[in-house]
Design a protein that fits this description.
Structural class: alpha+beta
Distance between the termini: 24 Å
Strand content: 35-45%
CATH topology of the largest domain: Tumour Suppressor Smad4
Number of domains: 2
Order of helices and strands: EHEHEHEHHEEEHHHEEEEEHEEE
Helix content: 10-25%
Largest sheet: 9 strands, antiparallel
CATH class of the largest domain: Mainly Beta
Radius of gyration: 19 Å
Shape: elongated
Number of helices: 9
Number of strands: 15
CATH architecture of the largest domain: Sandwich
Length: 297
Amino acid sequence: MSQLKTLLIINPVSGKGRVKNYLLDIIKVLGENGQMVSVLMTEKRGDAIEFAETYGKDYDRIVCTGGDGSLNEVVNGLMRIPLEDRPIVGYIPLGTTNDMASSLGLPKTPEDVLTRINLNNTRVVDVGQFDDNYFGYVSAFGAFTDVSYTTPQNSKNTWGYLAYIVQALSSIKDIKSCHAKITYDDGVIEDDFILGAVVNSTSVAGIIKLSPDDVSLDDGIFEVLLIRMPKKPSDLNNVIANVLERKFNTEHVFLLHTKDITFEFDRPVSWTCDGEDGGAHTTIHAHNCHRALELII
């Protein structure tokens, strides 16, 4: 039987730099029974994409430590190599919100992950294609969607999740709508929206929660949350309350289910992918890549 090979990709700055406290324990767990572990450490954004794309086919597993952005980079790298060459993916969440960990039912502390991780227990999940890029759990535009990457890293390291809340509250006054024509499997919608999120997760930004009854991570279908611009500013509080209470069938808040979706805007609109900057676009197409990755759970 050949020796299993694992590539450990480390983001040293996420989650207040906690990985340095667990590195030896992580390597010990991954290297049990004589399995070989190689370690690469990122120095800048994009490094994990390059590592996964370049070395992925040479390993049986790629395990990353960090936040959702770190996992997003690994996903983007692996989706650039053929399906038959993609290794199994492991995720040790050390970021601030860790939405993907919530959807997968992973523990939120390194201690619990290392205690409960079963390297032979895996599940296959869908991956979203966002034009030429990929996302693991969400691609979104509009209100609050840029909070995760506009919040300074030093604030996240100092204050953790509270830093996101402060940044979000400071942006309420700047909420603006954008006009969009949205084409999906079952039809076309055209209106003014303050938020749109293409989701394969039960948690978005740690604040918006979808019911597990509405979300399956491997059914080939996205959930799409859309929020129309309220006609009266006073309605905004009700809209926010509906989202927090998971009321997705109201006048302003609704949920679609689709495999493919195209957004057309009258001006460039900024997007995020798994909490990372996704650029500004006037037209964007998202497609569900069915059962594209196998994840350790």
